[in-house]
Specification:
The complex is a heterodimer of chains A (about 350) and B (about 250). By secondary structure, chain A is an alpha+beta fold. Chain A has two domains: about 170 residues, no CATH class; about 110 residues, Cyclophilin-like (Cyclophilin, Beta Barrel), CATH 2.40.100. Helix content of chain A is about 15%, strand content about 30%. An eight-stranded mixed β-sheet of chain A has the order 20-13-14-17-16-19-12-21. A six-stranded antiparallel β-sheet of chain A has the order 7-6-9-4-1-11, with no helix packed on it. Chain A has a five-stranded antiparallel β-sheet with strand order 2-3-10-5-8, covered by helices on one side. In chain A, a hairpin with a 2-residue loop joins strand 22 and strand 23. With about 250 residues, chain B is of the alpha+beta class. Chain B is about 20% helix and about 30% strand. In chain B, a hairpin with a 2-residue loop joins strand 9 and strand 10. Classes of the chains: A alpha+beta (about 350), B alpha+beta (about 250). At the A-B interface, strand 12, strand 15, strand 19 and helix 4 of A face strand 2, strand 3 and strand 4 of B.
């Protein structure tokens, strides 16, 4: 499929699972901000979970299908996904063809970041093994930058059975708990001992607010300051995805997809990777709370999320192989199946 | 400076743990980091996806579906089993630099600040090997240690908005090379035609943690020749084997 960008939206970039493997060379990972939503969108569209998709922010783009036919699934926040001007369902495989227009009417709650996943992905050349856009470094994605009006995107080759997946929706029990007041799960460390006991107590008992300084690199939070026990500088070390660093002013900064690979502020805790996606949907003024979990608990939840994705993949297979009857068929009947020498009478009846 | 301590394994979320060997910038500490990194590269543990060496610790990234909660203990015992093996030699990448002029507009100021002639600054800057502790800050940026302290110069009060890739600068007691065009406040004393970061090359960075770097002054003719070779993809950086463990 070829798509024309008629309106680019606020910030629309090509992202995949991230440019992992080069943090030791100083290259930020980038990638989708809400990985769980992005992975579900891809599975619903018929892809592997980390195929390149469009990450759209608050105000989505308007895309015209110039040529071809394909499957698209919108995931993440409800930004008013529409096909030819009519509202279209989220997390559902929708068929689009030449002449169609994909647009977004505006955010309707549930966050600020959406994903538009095309069967076959967005065909941009991989850079260092990834199609993610790293904006500050002008690296990867669509010419290293956000989409502009007039850009023409190509989708990749359709995966097998893509059209058989049309109409497939993510079952609600395989989606995430996105309740607004749920505290984010964090594993304390690596430098939780750089803060006073009182500071740690304040961190885990306070409600923080997302400030205006919240982007793909990180979210600065506002709220009760957390006191350091021995100064706010450490010799630089690695900054993992979701690290919560606290500089001298005592206010937490959550480090997200486009973070620098290393940094010199102590990190009180690291957000569990699937809850990083929950944070990435929050906007300026939203409340954030943290709850400490153990390493073992965090691993267990990460495994459960992996199981949920596997179950979504199975649900997709079931959908693709469901029996389909022509229109007007009364859905009951009988025929004889012959295997070798033996004949079997087969009957079926539609469930009322 | 503080030397290596007993390795500590620190939690860093559900996809990373950090093996820490000390709290200061110290060559012996960093040698332990490199030693564990090499060992895990040679004898990987299942589920490990990426290793990020820094000044004093090794961040170990993993797939949470493929490891158990015993991973920190496994890493602690692996790190402990390596204690005592000494760092020797190393490899040193030679970096040709055109010093001064428009490539190094701050060379006169660095010389004035140090109370030295410009040629003496160049001779001190090229007179020793620098140890690459880690990469970070921007793609391919190497944190180099071991500059002659007499060359230390404060950063510019007003940072430049665009510094060309390859610029060699001094900031305080640090020296370094800008791998990509970027804004910055370092005092620029020269430039190398080599590409420190090239996303289309394997590996994409010229330098790596644990390597050494030696700057060599080149004249206009050599600079042009190297520039041309780099442009044609024909330049092979000179890498020397180091015998000793000293900086000079």
């Amino acid at each position: 499929m070829r798509l024309e960008v008629r309106r680019p939206g606020l910030l629309s970039t090509v992202q995949d699972g991230g440019r992992w493997g080069y943090q030791g060379k100083g290259v930020p990972v980038a990638g989708a901000m809400d990985l769980p939503a992005f992975r579900r969108g891809n599975l619903v569209a018929g892809n592997e979970p980390e195929e390149a998709a469009l990450e759209i922010t608050v105000l989505g783009p308007t895309l015209g299908v110039l040529e071809g036919e394909g499957i698209v699934a919108a995931a993440g926040a409800d930004l008013g996904f529409a096909l030819n001007g009519a509202p279209a369902p989220l997390l559902t495989a929708v068929r689009v063809r030449s002449g169609d227009e994909i647009s977004f009417a505006g955010p309707r709650g549930g966050g600020c970041r959406g994903y538009l996943c095309f069967a076959g992905g967005v065909a941009v050349p991989p850079v260092m093994g990834s199609r993610s856009t790293f904006l500050r470094g002008a690296l990867g994605g669509f010419h290293g930058r956000a989409l502009r009006a007039g850009d023409v995107l190509e989708t990749g080759d359709l995966p097998p059975l893509a059209f058989a997946g049309e109409g497939f929706s993510c079952p609600p029990d395989l989606d995430l708990d996105r309740s607004a007041d749920r505290p984010l799960r964090v594993v304390p460390g690596p430098q939780d001992d750089a803060f006073t006991a009182e500071g740690r107590e304040i961190f885990f008992s306070s409600a923080y607010r997302v400030t205006d300084e919240a982007d793909r690199m990180g979210y600065r939070l506002e709220g009760p300051p957390v006191a350091h026990s021995r100064g706010a500088d450490i010799v630089s070390d690695a900054v993992p995805l979701g690290a919560i660093q606290i500089p001298g002013h005592g206010r937490p900064i959550c480090m997200l997809a486009d973070r620098q690979t290393t940094g010199g502020y102590p990190k009180i805790a690291v957000i569990c990777s699937d809850d990083v996606g929950v944070l990435a949907q929050r906007m300026a003024g939203d409340t954030v709370r943290f709850v400490a979990v153990t390493f073992a608990e965090a691993l267990r939840w990460a495994k459960e999320e992996g199981d949920a994705l596997e179950n979504l993949r199975r649900a997709r297979s079931t959908w693709r192989s469901r029996p389909r009857f022509p229109a007007g068929w009364d859905a009951s009947g009988r025929w004889t199946l012959t295997v070798g020498e033996r004949a079997y009478a087969v009957t079926w009846r539609a469930r009322s | 400076m503080d030397g290596p301590t007993k390795p500590r394994v620190l939690f860093a979320g559900d996809r990373c743990v950090v093996v820490e060997f000390g709290t200061a910038i110290d060559r012996a500490v960093n040698a332990r980091v490199q030693q564990l990194r090499r060992d895990l590269e040679a004898r990987p543990l299942g589920g490990i996806t990426e290793l990020v060496p820094t000044y004093r610790s090794l961040a170990v990234y993993f797939d949470p579906r493929r490891v158990g909660e015993g991973l920190p203990e496994l890493l602690a015992s692996r790190a402990a089993s390596l204690e005592g093996s000494a760092e020797t030699g190393g490899r040193c990448v030679v970096i040709p630099v055109g010093y001064g002029g428009e490539r190094g507009p701050d060379l006169p100021e660095v010389a004035r600040h140090a109370g030295l002639s410009e040629s003496e600054v160049v001779s001190r800057h090229t007179g020793r090997d620098y140890y690459c502790y880690m990469l970070g800050f921007t793609p391919g940026f190497a944190y180099l240690g071991g500059m002659d302290e007499t060359l230390a110069t404060p950063r510019l009060a007003n940072p430049r908005t665009k510094i060309p890739a390859g610029s060699v600068g001094i900031a305080g007691a640090q020296t370094g090379i800008y791998p990509i065009d970027s804004p910055g406040g370092w005092r620029l004393i020269g430039r190398t035609p080599l590409r420190l970061f090239d996303p289309d090359r394997t590996p994409p960075t010229l330098l790596d943690a644990g390597l050494w770097v030696r700057f060599v002054a080149v004249d206009e003719g050599e600079y042009a020749a190297v520039t041309d070779q780099v442009r044609r993809g024909a330049y092979v950086p000179e890498v020397r084997d180091r015998e000793g463990n000293h900086e000079a």
